[in-house]
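Render this sequence as a predicted structure.
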Amino acid sequence: MFSTSRFTPTHRCQASNQKFGSKLWFLALFSLILSGCNTYRIDQTWPSELPPQKVFIKGFLDKRNLESATDAQLGYHLGWIKKFYQGTALYPNGWLSASDQFIESVKTREERRVVETRMYKLGILIANEWAQDNDIRLINNANIATWGSALRTAAENEDQMQFLEKVELDVKLLLTEQIKARQIKYERYFPEESFDDF
């Protein structure tokens, strides 16, 4: 005769609880693994006028061939990104202000839209590289100062499109290590003009 005691409701509840506990453990482990892929919590105070944080987080991770980074590492990088766009005590005219002035100097509406898009993309490339640690970055403070001054000159000379093409090319050459940061001088863009810090 077979015993039916092992099929009582009490045993069914225990077996069900064991399966449920196993599923909970698996979900907890899966959540932990996924959280390691994206360790940085999005900064809710990120300025809306800046490109999305994720663009800069990706740039930070790609530069270092990393899958993830600590909140402190990413927070530090993003802090420099904000300074690039908004300015600092030393350079109060950040990329946003300099770009706005440059774009406004373009005569036609169609060209302004083109320049605005190109300046947006260029800003991301420059900021992501400039905000890296000093020992690995390929764009430095002197480059930023040079481009800031040259932006003003290009606007005054109504030479915005040609200047923009030169800077886009130089940024590409810098990021692919075909030229060095020390080669970026004001005279590279305007040989006949004198240099002044923006």
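Summary. Residues 1-8, 24-39 have pLDDT under 50 and may be disordered. The chain has eight helices and no strands.
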